[in-house]
């Protein structure tokens, strides 16, 4: 599964588990308006670390915090590139 | 009925023998001796350690128990080393406790240099003239902290034995045993019961597999058996559990949750299952025998057995004649508050007329500013019938600081682990606030248990 699909799949599952009403996912969707709270994001980051072996929030220097779903996906795609380099 | 106060263990045994009460035996994996025989025997070649400060540092519990009975009432102070003590701590312990004699069952020449003139090897029992006890010996137990040097906790025999009731006159003599080492508070309570209330004591050995110990309990017909909930969960996982049939099952040292109480009730339908609250510092607080987790809130008003309880900022405090007298050593913390209450650091919450233990003050996981006690989550997980034991930990997280994770040991069963996992998490979501539900749950074959019989909690400092 691509990083994008893994991220989106986890977002949907966590929203369901946490009984959050998730806004339709698109790259432009602002994360703070997605329906996910900070606990959901914490879980998302932990699960992505477990599944992808990536935690850009901890490993990246000069991190630019993602604002939209598209930013979030690109952050992980960038981390994967750094990891492979 | 009040039990007469013994001056020392050998005096208690002598009084029982003089009263015509049959005395039991002390049975280790390889050795056994009648308690009555200890009155006229020495494992130290009759060496006189009257008035000395003695470190008992043996590998075997049997040797430690024999030396303890021989020296109580003669030595000024006895320091009991648990078997897993890091030898690196010995010089500090010997220095702070003013040790001037060591008893070991190993090679005295191989014993670490402590600047102590007498290092005695305890050997087979030989005849010795009874020596009149001359003093109240101070007993020093070491706490089982996972980090740093252990604390030395001083007790008097009267405090250590304060919760022990005399045997009913017509009752058959019990056969005691404990998963604990007798050099820890929980195990020492059982040795003292065997000496003071009568009966035989079956000792475990730290290198003995659980199945072997359980089989031995069966052969000896053990009737009264104590251990931590972790000890008991491990015993319940062993096929050898069916080999013995105790009448009395006691839990202490960790939170006894409803799941383990119920599992023990099912496994030993004939037994009364009780859980006791005790710690090395606070002594025996109270015992709960109604089969329910936690303890009735009325204990705070009733002060059962003269043990006064307070809850201050969520933590249980205890004042009683059974608490330790002091910590030994310079720079030690103060044991009790200004009113004489010992702060146990065990956090309780009042629900439905009962106080429930929710965890250690130092063990809290902070999820974005919200507190989680690992034990309260474990209690929910452990309710699932397929779960034998679980460990909940904090895991660093860049968003909330920490998240709750769980590692679970399953019993064999038909449903696939993925289905069990979904059920466990559903139960957690039903019972717990969202931040307390494990964000990651994995399965393991086993969980580490410390030498003290408690679930190993990496990174957490736990006592007693």
- What is the string of helix and strand elements of chain A? HHHH
> Overall 3D geometry of chain A?
globular
CATH H-level homologous superfamily name of the largest domain in chain B: ANL, N-terminal domain
Our Rg estimate of chain B from Cα atoms comes to 22 Å
Pairing-aware structural class of the strands and helices of chain A? mainly alpha
| Helix percentage range of chain A | 55-70%
Low-confidence stretches of chain B: 460-464
Supply the number of structural domains of chain A: 1
Q: What do the pLDDT scores of chain B average to?
A: 90
Number of helices of chain B: 11
Strand order of the largest sheet of chain B: 2-1-12-11-13-14-15-16
Reading off the top of the CATH hierarchy, the class of chain A is best stated as: Mainly Alpha
CATH architecture of chain A: Orthogonal Bundle
What is the general shape of chain B? globular
Strand content of chain A: under 5%
How much helical structure, as a percent, in the residues of chain B?
A: 10-25%
Q: Given the helix and strand composition of chain B, which structural class is it?
A: alpha/beta
Report the largest inter-chain contact. Answer: A-B, 14 and 16 residues
CATH topology call of chain A: Non-ribosomal Peptide Synthetase Peptidyl Carrier Protein, Chain A
Based on the model shown, name its key terms.
heterodimer; A: 85 residues; mainly alpha; Non-ribosomal Peptide Synthetase Peptidyl Carrier Protein, Chain A; B: 464 residues; alpha/beta; Rossmann fold; GMP Synthetase, Chain A, domain 3; 2 domains; eight-stranded mixed β-sheet; seven-stranded mixed β-sheet; 11 helices; 27 strands
Summarize the SSE layout with pairings.
The complex is a heterodimer of chains A (85) and B (464).
Chain A: H1 3-17, H2 38-52, H3 56-59, H4 69-84
Chain B: H1 9-18, E1 25-27, E2 32-34, E3 41-42, E4 53-56, H2 61-71, E5 77-80, H3 90-96, E6 101-104, E7 118-121, E8 126-127, E9 138-142, E10 152-156, H4 157-160, E11 175-178, H5 185-197, E12 200-202, H6 210-220, E13 224-227, H7 229-237, E14 248-251, H8 258-267, E15 272-279, E16 283-288, E17 295-296, H9 299-302, E18 308-312, E19 315-319, E20 326-328, E21 342-351, E22 354-360, E23 365-367, E24 370-372, H10 374-382, E25 387-397, E26 401-410, H11 417-431, E27 440-443
Parallel strand pairs in B: 1-12, 4-5, 4-6, 5-9, 6-7, 11-12, 11-13, 13-14, 14-15, 26-27
Antiparallel strand pairs in B: 1-2, 3-8, 9-10, 10-20, 15-16, 17-22, 18-19, 19-21, 21-22, 23-24, 25-26
Organism (chain A): Methylobacterium oryzihabitans
Protein name (chain A): Acyl carrier protein
GO molecular function, one term (chain B): long-chain fatty acid-CoA ligase activity
